[in-house]
Amino acid sequence: MTSAAPTRAAGVPRPLDRALQSWEPTRVLRGTPDDAWTVLSEASSCVALTGAGLSTDSGVPDYRGRDAQRGTPMQFADFVGDAANRRRYWARAYQGWAAMGQATPNRGHVALANWEHGGWPTHLAGLITQNVDGLHPAAGSRRVVQLHGSIHQVSCLDCGGLTTRDDMQRRLAEANPGVVVQDWRGHPELRPDGDAVVEDWHDFVVPDCLACGGSLKPDVVFFGETVPRPRVDQARAWVDHCDALLVAGSSLSVMSGLRFVRQAAGRGVPVVIINHGATRGDDLATVRLDGSVSDLLEALVRH
Hints:
Blueprint: H1 15-19, H2 33-41, E1 45-50, H3 76-81, H4 83-100, H5 107-118, E2 123-129, H6 135-139, E3 144-146, E4 149-156, E5 162-164, H7 165-175, E6 216-220, H8 229-241, E7 245-248, H9 255-266, E8 271-274, E9 287-289, H10 293-302
Parallel strand pairs: 1-2, 1-7, 2-3, 7-8, 8-9
Antiparallel strand pairs: 4-5, 4-6
């Protein structure tokens, strides 16, 4: 016997609704860049948490920015449960990879990598990112937990085998010789998971797993899918032993990121939040800065 799904109180937004809410300005500002540097330099170690706002300078859009595409991203149950949904997703991802596959780290990514290797303004114990673009490892960061996976890999839903996204792109091209990859025309046609706007997808052919014939999925956590426990455990362990938490470029709309801010604040650990626009963690911030994430991160490391 299956129990009924719990009802949601009226007016309480679902996680997906929170993530897709329109951009809103910051209402809580505390301190200056110098104050942020002081907090971090006085800590013996820090953990950084990053979101999509860090990658916008690399041409990767976010979900809630002022220019964000307002479409609804694919949810896990819809992808797994319907071959037509998988076909639509891969037709769009095939086009989106023309932009996502060419994105390179920006000054913010480089600043965090330099911080890890240089130990300034304090020891950077680890970097937790909600992004799937792989730009932190590309910039040189090594102690990274990619909470939501990496769009540079593809996994099989049946056997769990992994292949590269470049290999998947090649197979998609071979299976759909008549489909031309369009020039990427900007932010309104792409989402952070590489899902581009495509109208004609009904005849798109999606190859199966070469190992078992199963269905292929980008190796990222979709909305409605659970973040793998080892990633959460590693991130929690870092936050549980740090003396400061820095949030950069995340609105903290979904619990996968917000829980670490609550964890740090619950321990009495200072929290520095840098983001352009409001976040769900603003009231918990010791220092709350609004501005260019890349500029502010670069300034902190070069202080």
